[in-house]
UniProtKB/TrEMBL annotation:
Protein's name in the database: Rheb small monomeric GTPase RhbA
Protein location: Cell membrane
Xref: Gene3D superfamilies: P-loop containing nucleotide triphosphate hydrolases
UniProt keyword terms in alphabetical order: GTP-binding, Hydrolase, Lipoprotein, Magnesium, Membrane, Metal-binding, Methylation, Nucleotide-binding, Prenylation
Entry membrane topology: Lipid-anchor
Biological processes per GO annotation: signal transduction
Family matches, as InterPro entries: P-loop_NTPase (IPR027417), Small_GTP-bd (IPR005225), Small_GTPase (IPR001806), Small_GTPase_Ras-type (IPR020849)
Gene Ontology, cellular component aspect: plasma membrane
Cited PANTHER family: RAS, DI-RAS, AND RHEB FAMILY MEMBERS OF SMALL GTPASE SUPERFAMILY
Organism phylogeny: Eukaryota, Fungi, Dikarya, Basidiomycota, Agaricomycotina
Length: 188
């Protein structure tokens, strides 16, 4: 397998201020900031070892979505996997996950996408609005992986991206090889 085939593009989506950038920054740079700067869009690269294989991961940190945000082709075409983030302190951000998921599915013309649903800010459990069971149920319903994280306390941050690679590899290996499906958005 050539290096080019091990490149994996992962898009991180979700409502505004749920902690997408903080999650990505903690993963890439190992630090956390309390201040908030809205993201327009940034891409980060990191080599990740999963199951004995080195993957060249390109992580796209996107601007916060609301129910009216269209799914940009950039977040659909050529993307291998998705990280959909809500905050456990915001029921609204949780409700947005199904909306964003359905928009991606619609845009890609697929019935299933490699995806991890993330309940962020789990250090703020005293302000919790979404039970872990609700998150798990949503993930199971959509055939996604699920994890709760804290970028602040570095809880389960690396796990998010391992789970995403797992979801991607589950759908590409072994009999399908590393080829893009004839229909849909996974362009290698
Ligand atoms: N307590 C706590 N606060 C967090 C955590 N993650 C992010 N925050 C805070 O939440 C706020 C928003 O975080 P960002 O990472 O900028 O959120 P975002 O989803 O990238 O925001 P947009 O760019 O607007 O989409 C910041 O003040 C962060 O410090 C966390 O795990 N725990």
């Amino acid at each position: 397998m050539t290096n080019a085939l091990k490149k994996r593009k992962i898009a991180v989506l979700g409502s505004r201020s749920v902690g997408k950038s903080s999650l990505v920054k903690q993963f890439i740079e190992n630090h956390f900031m309390d201040s908030y700067y809205p993201t327009i869009e940034s891409t980060f690269a990191k080599s990740v070892s999963y199951n004995g294989v080195e993957y060249d991961c390109h992580i796209i940190d996107t601007a916060g979505q609301d129910e009216y945000s269209p799914i940009n082709a950039q977040y659909a075409i050529g993307i291998h996997g998705y990280v959909l983030v809500y905050s456990i302190t915001s029921k609204n951000s949780f409700d947005m996950i199904q909306t964003v998921y359905d928009k991606i599915i619609d845009f890609c013309g697929l019935t299933d996408i490699p995806c991890v649903i993330v309940g962020s800010k789990c250090d703020l459990s005293s302000s919790r609005q979404v039970d872990m069971q609700e998150g798990l149920k949503l993930a199971n319903r959509n055939n996604c992986a699920f994890v709760e994280t804290s970028a602040k306390n570095d809880i389960n941050v690396a796990k998010v991206f391992e789970l995403c690679l797992q979801e991607i590899e589950k759908r590409t290996a072994p009999n399908q090889g590393d080829q893009a499906p004839s229909k849909g958005c996974q362009i290698m």
